[in-house]
Fold this sequence. Notes:
Elements: H1 2-27, H2 55-58, E1 72-78, H3 83-87, H4 94-102, E2 105-111, H5 118-127, H6 133-138, H7 155-161, E3 167-172, H8 174-178, E4 186-189, H9 199-205, H10 208-212, E5 219-224, H11 226-234, H12 241-269, E6 276-281, H13 297-300, E7 301-308, E8 331-333, H14 336-345, H15 367-388, H16 397-402, H17 404-408, H18 418-435, H19 443-465, H20 469-492, H21 508-521, H22 527-549, H23 553-569, H24 582-587, H25 592-617, H26 621-644, H27 653-659, H28 666-687, H29 695-710, H30 717-728
Parallel strand pairs: 1-5, 1-6, 2-8, 3-4, 3-5
Antiparallel strand pairs: 2-7, 6-7
Helix pairs in contact: 1-20, 15-18, 15-19, 18-19, 20-21, 21-22, 22-23, 23-30, 25-26, 25-29, 25-30, 26-28, 26-29, 28-29, 29-30
Amino acid sequence: MRWVYASALSVLLVVELVGLGLFAKGFFPYKKSIPGFAGREDQPMDIGRGLNAPATAQHNNSGVSAEPQYDRLVLMVVDALRNDFVFGNESGMAYTQNLLRSGAALGFTAKAQAPTVTMPRIKALMTGTVPSFLDAVLNIAESDTSSSLKHQDNLLWQLKTHGGKEINMFGDDTWLRLFPDMFTRTDGTSSFYVADTVEVDTNVTRHVRPELERDDWGVVVLHYLGLDHIGHLAGPKSPLMRPKQREMDDIVRTVHEIVADQDRKRMAADAQAKPTLVVLLGDHAMNEIGNHGGNSQLETSTVFVFIGSGIAGQPMADHGRNALSKLLASNVQQSSLVSTLALLFGVPIPKNNLGLPLPELLGGYSDRERLHMLQTVSAQIYGLVRANENNAVAVDLQQIIANPAVYAKADCSHIDTAGSQMQCKYEAALAMHRQASSNTDVSNVERAYYEFMELASTHLSRASSGYNLQLMTMGLVLMAATVLGFAVLCQFGGTSLIHFKSRRLAVSLPAVGMWATYLLSTLSSSLIEEEHQFWYFWVQTLLALRLATNGGRYRTLAQMAAFRVVRAWNQTGQFWAGEPDVRQYLNAPENAWLVWVLAVVTLGAINAAAWALHRRYWRSVLWSRAFRGLLAYASVCVLAYHSDRSHEGLTLGVWKMVRACLPSDSARLAQSVYFATALLAATSCAGLRRAGAYVAPLDALTGVMPLLLLLSRPHNFAVFGLFFVICALFFPE
Length: 733
């Protein structure tokens, strides 16, 4: 009968994989896009001039009706730059704020879309498209090349190919993976060593002056990671945050002064030369604990600051404390950057762009030029509408030019199908543009174009980021059928799923209940943000069942109590992330001493546990002493590393003596911990007694604990200690 059960299990496995595949296909929707790269020939003729106008009057055979306003571009990306870090009262970016107040810069709150992690946000910034959660998964893979934009239309390709720009990049090496063979000079830094908040930015800043003072560049990308790393390590209210903001502000000043001086010299020597545009922006923001990835208000609120000659900012009469507060609410979509820069630099707009140009940046053009720009962006977006909507057809410009009044007065509100409604609005905008003359107010035409673009962009964004509920439901049904099939197979195979009278933990029935409720929870729109609540509930439920069906009641009660404390330590997710927790209490300035007391107690307890563990189970005294010595050294290095990086570190006289015996800088302390962890793993394998089956996982956990604490924050040390206690209580020996 074994082959029967083996065959049945194989069938169940296949069904499970098919269900998982269907669910994944529905959860990660396919986005229809237009292949290839936009060219000059894709740009529309100016409908305001008419089909019979000479080619030179239409668009000079190049598709561009206006001269570029800028020659060179500096993109300064500050990872996790939240809007209040620039516009808020507690900001350390004084120079940037002065530029905004004086009208020399123009600022916006740029709204990012989830997932708010670096790779999908860079994709959105350079292509104008909507990222997917699959991009968030690929963001983790340092060596991944499947998400490259080498064969996708993007702003950098347009600037290099049609703008003739030499492009250089310094900073986050995500750009190098996304844009292979794009940059002339590069120096990439890894974004995954979050403990580094200094060198990762110094490595970028050392290139700023030498590179910008050269005269052979057209675009320079600077991507700083230090502010994001501080957020991950200590949160946005860390004592390190304002100094880092001041550091970024000094770089803005340096960049602005260098390019302004160069622009004066270039434009004096060449009457055809154009100025340089500097754009300060963030790829995403961070929440109140310094993390990102979700869709909360704090995580999606980053910035655009445009600095350069010709920027028509509004000087502020009020230079008081709240002068820039209105910029915190001046929301624009982050995808607007692509079309805006493409128009300002006179290059074709990437084919799959969904972003609307920022009207505040187009004020330097005449009415005719500005309307043709809006027509160009609308034509590009309508191309995407036609690719995604079957009932949207090609627009007949001949008919619109012949009968503009008919199309301009069309009532589009009663059209049921999305594609036809968007076509109607597009044709109405073109007709109004055709009717406009040089002596009329063109604001209604601009409004018509923006109404169409907003409608189309919103519809296409939802379509490309939505879910296929039919496929997801089919997948869930198949996976649920697999669980039930496995239950039936176990029942007929002689292994009952229900052990009502067993004194052991009745795992099988709760497991079925857990998987059933998890399948139901996948239908929730909040699963991604709040999935941890599901596991919090089931961990405590399983511990309660263990208490009811097994011995060791006091041990289980201790586990439940420890887990409840862990649960209350850090509020996570989206809904309750701002609620009071233990972390907030410990981070209060008056409780800094308690953080270090808990840190020392935790490290001491881990070392004491290792001593007790090894005295009983290790066969070699030499290996045991080596293990304990390495663990003690790594623990002290961890304590020194976090103390050095804190403004309220350890100051005791005894500690100063210990600190003098350790490596002098943070980077060497971190290297010591990594090296010690590797030696601990080797020592553990060499010295552990085979008979100690229960001690193996505890020994491994002890050896890796210094590394985990190095990557954590001091106020979370006690959480690791509690977790170690919970694990230790599972073993009866």
